[in-house]
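BUG: 3D viewer hangs when loading the predicted structure for this chain

Environment: internal workstation, default settings.
Expected: structure renders.
Actual: progress bar stalls at 90%.

Input used:
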Amino acid sequence: MIKIMFVCHGNICRSPMAEFIFKDMVKRVGRENEFIIASSATSTEEIWNGIGNPVYPPALEELARHGLKCDGKRAVQLKADDANSYDLFLCMDSANVRNAKRILGDGSSHKVKKLLDYAGGGDVADPWYSDRFDIAYADIYRGCEALLQTLK
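Structure tokens produced before the viewer hung:
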């Protein structure tokens, strides 16, 4: 069983998109029983009184354009003890990598990578600021495809 946690700043845009894109990919190739797939945030900005905000509506709309749903997904924060529960932490950008390593501790830094490291490198730009959820989706999809190829 391969346990993967996708990570972004707030867990309402990029990392939930990655979670549900990758879940769909592994299901389409009949490998859903080989993975545990989740997503989380490095910040608490989208978590109030212990309850996470739902996925941001434009991210939901972009997923829906591709036939994907993420009903019930709410933001959660990455925790230090996640280091013991997951094999790989795939971050959307360099700031997420830095913050994930801080949260998880030095002993887990080898598990923390950027998603696009599997697809030639780079960051998945935050659509919260650019409003380009289509570009974020395309980058995440490309990263997830390359990841799945690597994990064959």
